[in-house]
Design goal:
This protein is α/β, with parallel strands linked by helices and about 600 residues long. Helix content is about 25%, strand content about 25%. The protein contains 13 helices and 30 strands. The chain has an eight-stranded parallel barrel with strand order 1-2-3-4-5-6-7-11, surrounded by five helices. Strands 9-8-28-29-30-27 form a six-stranded antiparallel beta sheet, with no helix packed on it. The two termini are about 50 Å apart.
Length: about 600
């Protein structure tokens, strides 16, 4: 039996979620007004319920993100939200805090957030055994480690394929809390990784000044989808709950088309219904992008930082070859359009922006040329022509066969959709014979296939060729509307809803003691770990800030980025320890070269 494969897209709100579904997402994830890991992306339960109803028409799913760590005084509110999510039709909860497993919840499936630090077969096996339906893997894992996890587990595995990257292992970053008292694990990260820093040697020598030393480019793994499928990934996740509709539309459509080429119906199949009809060619580089990296998926380490800016630059369009008083010429890699947005680096390596007023071949008139120099590379971060294309609607339709027959003194209309759901209606045949049979059949076809405002695409099959009675268009339209309504209702009745009830067990955890990085911030989470043989459980960093602890651990390495990796260049060494400096703040760096990891204290 083929394995069901899911394309999972972000939903900042109801309208963005609808766009994602229309563009082919099999599922979307969305936050309520509290306890989501992106505080700025909260939604009312009414809007979430509206999205659920829309998604379920296509047998697509909606997951609620309840993935912050919880304080004791919030536990009951979190439980009530979980109950409300179930009654609103949500298909699963994405959670980080193990307190949820100690609550009396409805049978809503639980998904272990990447914030739970899911990096090893042992950890994923534990999460499987305590009741999680799915585990979202750490972004850093290469194919080989994903395969190892798959071989030792049966739980669903989800992995990121596109979007912005946290430089730290998810759930293990305390830099924002330490610097601003805004916790990443509480959904209010201040994103210090996107700030500028000086890099200093132990003797105070400045190696780099005012660079975005912790800012990674974005991940894009379209080329690795097949390898990820073979490794055992069943849900492919697009990051971006703060992204706009253009981003979601473009990127979801891109991965839908890529995945569809790999789903053969024998080994793999799509889990939702319908086919999206696009009016544009998806191009991920044309919406928010800092440039793309594959982020270790093939096990290789490559340059991945964006030192000069943390902003989206977009695509290279060409280098400036000439400057005049009110225009430039450029070496045209890509054509520009009126109203395009451009950016470039000035002589101080600062990112600056401008707009295109007019284009004639390789001559461009700009809104401002301040800071622009000959030889500068131009980047397009807003493609006006492409954005106009994105504004065109995308429709998603479920294929339906329509059978229209005259049987004795009855009219029988029946429909059967691509999932095998059938409904029919019967009417007494009190209609007159058609004077023009050919024209009559054309009218029947035109009326019954007019399903533009519905989730369906009706196609009349040849059974109607023998129909000889004449039917007014108004009657045909009424029958069509009734069939659509009945089919929607029948699909909902037959829609399978996964239920999972947590049954507490006493499976020992991987270790008998936990430090602050376990993010235990309430009594129920502590009770969970105690039941699983943890003797000592340190409180979360957010409850007990402390000096001289690990604030961030990352597979990203500054030594490699600047050409001083001991494995690559053993002859040249810097005087360690190295430090990051920002407005008087000093952060110490250390390096575990055996594991290829960098630590910030």
């Amino acid at each position: 039996m083929p394995v069901g494969i899911e394309l999972l897209a972000p939903a900042r709100n109801w309208t963005t979620g609808k766009v994602a579904i229309d563009c082919g997402a099999d599922a979307v994830y969305i936050a309520a007004e509290s306890f989501g890991a992106r505080e700025a992306a909260g939604n009312t339960m009414g809007d979430i319920e509206q999205l659920v109803r829309y998604a379920h028409r296509f047998y697509a799913k909606v997951y609620l993100t309840l993935n912050t760590i919880l304080f004791d005084q919030e536990l009951e509110a979190a439980r009530e939200l979980a109950v409300e999510a179930w009654h609103s039709g949500c298909d699963a909860l994405i959670v980080q805090d193990m307190a949820l497993l100690e609550m009396d919840l409805p049978p809503i499936p639980l998904i272990a957030s990447t914030q739970a630090h899911n990096t090893t077969p042992e950890k994923v096996k534990f999460l499987q055994e305590v009741g999680f339906q799915r585990v979202i893997l750490a972004r850093e894992l290469p194919i080989q480690q994903i395969q190892a996890i798959r071989e030792q587990t049966t739980v669903e595995l989800e992995a990121f394929v596109h979007g912005s990257l946290c430089v730290s292992y998810s759930g293990q970053c305390y830099l924002s809390q330490a610097l601003t008292e805004r916790s990443a694990n509480r959904g209010i990260c201040a994103q210090p990784c996107r700030s500028t820093y000086d890099l200093l040697e132990a003797n105070g020598k400045i190696i780099l000044r005012e660079k975005h030393l912790l800012s990674l480019r974005d991940v894009q793994r379209a080329h690795a989808l097949q390898d990820m499928l073979k490794a055992g990934i069943t849900s492919f996740k697009i990051e971006g709950r703060l992204k706009n509709e253009s981003y979601v539309k473009n990127v979801t459509s891109f991965y839908r088309q890529k995945l569809d080429t790999l789903l053969d119906g024998q080994s793999y199949k799509k889990i939702s219904s319908g086919k999206s009809i696009y009016s544009f060619t998806p191009q991920p580089e044309k919406t928010f992008s800092r440039g793309f990296i594959d982020y270790f998926i093939d096990g290789e380490r490559r340059l991945m930082a964006s030192f000069n800016t943390a902003k989206a630059m977009g695509e290279e369009v060409g280098r400036v070859t000439g400057l005049d008083s009110d225009q430039i010429t450029y070496e045209k890699k890509l054509p520009l359009h009126n109203a395009d947005g451009l950016c470039f680096f000035n002589d101080k390596e600062e990112l600056r922006g401008t707009n295109v007023n007019k284009v004639e071949e390789n001559k461009v008139w700009l809104n401002t040329m301040r800071g622009l120099q000959k030889g500068a590379m131009l980047y397009r971060n807003y493609d006006h022509k492409f954005e106009k294309q994105l504004q065109r609607p995308v429709t998603r339709k479920i294929a339906v066969e329509v059978r229209f027959e005259e049987q004795d003194n009855e009219i029988v209309l029946s429909v059967k959709d691509e999932d095998g759901v059938e409904v029919s209606l019967r009417e007494n045949n009190n209609f007159k014979k058609a004077e023009n049979v050919t024209k009559n059949l054309e009218n029947i076809k035109a009326s019954l296939e007019k399903t533009g405002g519905t989730p369906f695409e009706f196609q009349l099959i040849p059974s109607a060729d023998n129909v000889t009675s004449f039917f007014p268009s108004s009657q045909l339209n009424e029958w069509r509307r009734k069939l659509v309504e009945d089919l929607i209702n029948a699909r909902e009745v037959l829609r399978e809803r996964t239920k999972m009830k947590i049954i507490p067990n006493e499976l020992p955890f991987l270790t008998s003691s936990l430090d602050y990085r376990a993010n235990v911030s309430n009594a129920l989470a502590e009770k969970f770990y105690q039941r699983h043989s943890v003797i000592y459980c340190e409180k979360a960093y957010e409850l007990m800030p402390r000096d001289y602890v690990e604030l961030m651990r990352t597979k990203y390495c500054l030594l490699y980025e600047i050409g001083y990796c001991p494995k690559q260049n053993s002859k040249v060494k810097l005087q360690e320890p190295l430090f990051l400096m920002n407005n008087g703040l000093q952060l110490r760096l250390s390096f575990n070269c055996m594991l290829c990891e960098m630590v910030i204290n």
